[in-house]
């Protein structure tokens, strides 16, 4: 099973949704960084289920036990292992329908791939529960990047058919990104928060779910990170972003809309701002030829609606190989997008930390 990612900074996820615990091993992290446990706790709290209409009733503390790689408050340079205990599992919800393939889930493909030996409870290793240790690894990477003046933030760009105001891709401030991180429903247009909740509540009231888009931005990146062809920034980011369950699309800058523009519109003209090289537009999202150009890195991630819904659905009995009908019981998010915001940022931080270490080598903060 391929649950290892990275070139210089490698992460390995382990565990299952309803097993004793989940976690991550982070290998290649630089030594000497002071680990701020409060900041790690803050990031873990952003991902935890809230009391809002969109959240699952499952309550997990998501407290990380750091088993190795940190001594006297600083990273040692050896592998960092973070363990998160599962404390609020309800496996009986899945046992009665374990032979039925849940539409939209990996039940069927997982059964085929692993010969029926995969843990089906809560999705097992396929579960979005595995994003918790990803957020822990991302919190470490974020602290390293922030020491270099690199800052990451994001907002909910769209839920259902309601859309927020996008970033001004040439003018994004640290204060703006920090403000978004402190919102439970991060938006640029405050009125969108309630509008998003109404869309989610409407879907939930009908036993359904809804998806959406997260827009993320990174400022402070130096020009020159990345490589052409296979080592490009877009490819590195996309490969880890697509590891997040329910992600179905990633676009950079103006994204797919750039296909409808002319070259004279899509090209980002360079100019000197004092001794800084900048571009007047940022349709390419801060990347040229797979390499950062010093402008804000901007990308969007599309999430499909939560697959587990209360509406009865057609499916198959995996064991009997016959058609069946499924009614899902359990605790699920009506919309995973709000809780996915810190996960997207964590994945971004891990990818950029890896790129930074590839470019500059293993250096202490």
How would you characterize the overall build of this protein?
The chain is of the alpha+beta class and 365 residues long. 27% of the residues lie in helices and 23% in strands. The chain has a single domain, classed as 4-Layer Sandwich (Chorismate synthase, AroC fold), CATH 3.60.150. It contains nine helices and 18 strands. The strands form six sheets. The protein has a five-stranded antiparallel β-sheet, covered by helices on one side. A five-stranded antiparallel β-sheet has the order 9-8-10-16-11. Strands 5-6 form a two-stranded antiparallel ribbon. Strand 1 and strand 2 (10-15) form a beta hairpin. Helix 1 (37-47) packs across helix 9 (337-360), helix 4 crosses helix 9 (337-360) and helix 7 (233-241) packs antiparallel against helix 9. The longest helix has 24 residues, at 337-360.
Q: What is the straight-line distance between the termini?
A: 33 Å
Strand tally: 18
Number of helices: 9
Strand order, largest beta sheet: 1-2-3-7-4
Low-confidence runs of at least 5 consecutive residues: none
CATH class: Alpha Beta
């Amino acid at each position: 099973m391929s649950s290892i990612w990275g070139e210089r900074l490698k992460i390995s996820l382990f565990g299952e949704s309803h097993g004793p615990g989940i976690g991550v091993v982070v290998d290649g992290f630089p030594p000497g960084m002071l680990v701020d446990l409060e900041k790690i706790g803050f990031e873990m709290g952003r991902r935890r289920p809230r009391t809002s209409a969109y959240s699952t009733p499952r309550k997990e503390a998501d407290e990380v036990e750091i088993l190795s790689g940190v001594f006297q408050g600083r990273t040692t340079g050896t592998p960092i292992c973070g363990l998160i205990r599962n404390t609020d599992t309800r496996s009986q919800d899945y046992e009665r329908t374990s032979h039925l393939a849940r539409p939209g889930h990996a039940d069927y493909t997982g059964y085929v791939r692993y010969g029926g030996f995969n843990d089906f409870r809560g999705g097992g290793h396929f579960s979005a529960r595995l994003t918790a240790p990803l957020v822990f690894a991302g919190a470490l990477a974020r602290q390293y990047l922030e020491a270099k003046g690199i800052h990451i933030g994001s907002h909910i760009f769209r839920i259902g058919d309601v859309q927020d105001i996008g970033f001004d891709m040439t003018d994004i401030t640290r204060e703006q990104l920090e403000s978004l991180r402190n919102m439970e429903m991060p938006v640029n247009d405050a009125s969108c928060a309630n509008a998003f909740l109404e869309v989610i509540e409407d879907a939930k009231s009908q036993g359904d779910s809804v998806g959406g888009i997260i827009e993320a931005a990174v400022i402070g990146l130096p020009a020159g990170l990345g490589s052409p062809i296979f080592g490009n920034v877009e490819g590195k980011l996309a490969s880890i972003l697509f590891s997040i369950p329910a992600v179905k699309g990633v676009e950079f800058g103006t994204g797919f809309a750039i296909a409808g523009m002319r070259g004279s519109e899509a090209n980002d003209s360079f100019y000197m701002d004092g001794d800084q090289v900048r571009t007047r537009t940022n349709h390419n999202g801060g990347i040229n030829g797979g390499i950062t150009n010093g402008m804000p890195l901007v990308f969007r991630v599309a999430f499909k609606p939560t697959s587990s819904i209360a509406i009865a659905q057609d499916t198959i009995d995996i064991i009997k190989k016959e058609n069946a009908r499924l009614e899902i019981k359990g605790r699920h998010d009506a919309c995973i997008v709000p809780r996915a915001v810190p996960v997207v940022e964590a994945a971004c931080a891990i990818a950029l930390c890896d790129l930074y270490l590839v470019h500059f080598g293993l250096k202490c903060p």
